Amino acid sequence: MPQYRELTNSELGVELFDHFERKQVVTDCKRKVDGEWTVLADPFIDDWSDSDYSYLVECLKNTLASGGVVWGAFVDDELKGFASVERKAFGSEGQYMELTSLHVSSDMRRHGMGAVLFLLAADFARNLGVKKLYISSHSAVETQAFYEHMGCVEAEEYNEAAVQREPMDCQLEYVL
User: Fold this and answer.
1) Cβ–Cβ contacts within 10 Å for residue 151, how many?
2) Digit-coded pLDDT (tens) for 101-135
3) pLDDT at position 159
4) What is the 3-state secondary structure (H, E, C) of the chain?
5) What is the model's pLDDT at position 99?
6) What is the distance between the alpha carbons of residues 156 and 151, in angstroms, rounded to a whole number?
7) Who contacts 137 (Cβ-Cβ below 8 Å, separation ≥6)?
8) pLDDT score at 41
9) Domains of the chain by range and CATH?
10) Cystine design at 131: which of 71, 80, 95, 154 (Cβ 3.0–4.6 Å)?
11) Which residues of the chain have a pLDDT value below 70?
12) What is the CA radius of gyration of the chain?
């Protein structure tokens, strides 16, 4: 049974991810074409390199330093999932906080870990008084199915910085 807890800056290092496998085999993606959501064949393997993990650790440390939160899911003391939320609110009415990461190790997917991490992230944002969680989500159909199941819909306002970082992502929101 997974254990969930907030991560601290001192434990954030690349070694924390020694038993975490990001690998995702993607065949189809959901993309907006001429204003309509369409499923397109776009096969690739999404995996992280050592430098990607190093960059991730820097980003997560920055999240904590700026008042955000990083949640970890552990099985047998090994990190198998994590989620992060930035504390800074944005949007025309300050209605959003961004879920900047939500990842589950490939060996633990489809067991509810992602849902628990998502709800922990939503509670963090809700407790700080924002109305919506913003997600710039991977466009893989499986990822989109997860967020749809959680109740996410297309964002009413797009975060242009997120769109610039990942132009193929789907911009979603979750009403808290």
Assistant:
1) 12
2) 999 999 999 999 999 999 999 999 999 999 999 99
3) 97
4) CCEEEECCHHHCCHHHHCCCCCCEEEEEEEEEECCEEEEEEEEEEECCCHHHHHHHHHHHHHHHHCCCEEEEEEECCEEEEEEEECCCCECCCCCEEEEEEEEECHHHCCCCHHHHHHHHHHHHHHHCCCCEEEEEECCEHHHHHHHHHHCCEECCCCCHHHHHHCCCCEEEEEEC
5) 98
6) 14
7) 143, 144, 147, 152, 169, 170, 171, 172
8) 96
9) 3-175 (3.40.630.30)
10) 95
11) none
12) 16
Q: Who's near 119: CB < 8 A, 6+ residues apart?
A: none
User: Can you give the pTM of this predicted structure?
Assistant: 0.95
The one-letter amino acid code at 140 reads A
All residues at 6 or more sequence positions from 87 whose CB lies less than 8 Å from its CB, including other chains: 66, 67, 68, 69, 97, 128
Cα–Cα distance for residue pair 42/37, rounded to 1 Å: 15
